[in-house]
Model the fold of this input.
Amino acid sequence: MTYPDLAQKVVLITGGARGLGAAAAKAFLAEGCKVAIVDISGETLAQTAAELGAGADRLITVTADVSKEEDVQRYVAETVAAFGTVDVFFNNAGIEGKVAPIVDQKTEDFDRVMAINVRGCWLGLKHVLPLMYAKKSGSVINTSSIGGLVAGPMPVSPYVTSKFAIHGMTRVVANEAAAYQVRVNSVHPSPVNTQMMRSLEQGAGASQEAIASAIPLGRYAESEDIANMVLFLASEKSSFVTGSQFRVDGGMLS
Done:
């Protein structure tokens, strides 16, 4: 156990069925936390829960569309019903959208990316923060991207737009939450070795090796690399850190 202060903390993770969310759930469970994972696919959630192997006293799953306010209210309510509160919120759900120049993007695809990535993040904050404010403690980690700090060569304007929005949202809400001793930070991964990158590679017609060649450490991040940063930001070892952006990018933006 690396962070003993996390033991018995209640952690809520959106986009928790795979990738970064599933890796974070595994890491938090290893620290002795109680974890709720939220995703749109009940089947994938069930598979991930089986792989994680924790009992219902430590792990619950909630099927929800994070872009729908009633679903967000429900995943918060179900977490509270099971575990009593939320101490840590990994506000992680997101989709990549289409790889195409802006003139070839469909408006409905842009709207879907913004609904999941931006409205989903915003709604999560809106409905989780009151729980943290009431007890004057908590840590929120929003998932942005290096694409929320710089615009790279890949034509993914809806995705980049959404991740810049999360960057800005984090900074504004961190200022609001500080009065309640609640911390809000964002993580900004480089390409991560997940299914999302398989989709982006295919859309861009680029290989993993070609994309990784732009990363000084010479490889994609693994989901566990991001989970390690999330654990730190959730813990009391980062107790004086809020409103900040944490790159986990192998030196890509250095």
Notes: The chain has one domain: 4-246. Helices lie at 19-30, 42-52, 69-83, 107-135, 157-178, 195-204, 208-212, 223-234. The longest helix spans residues 107-135.
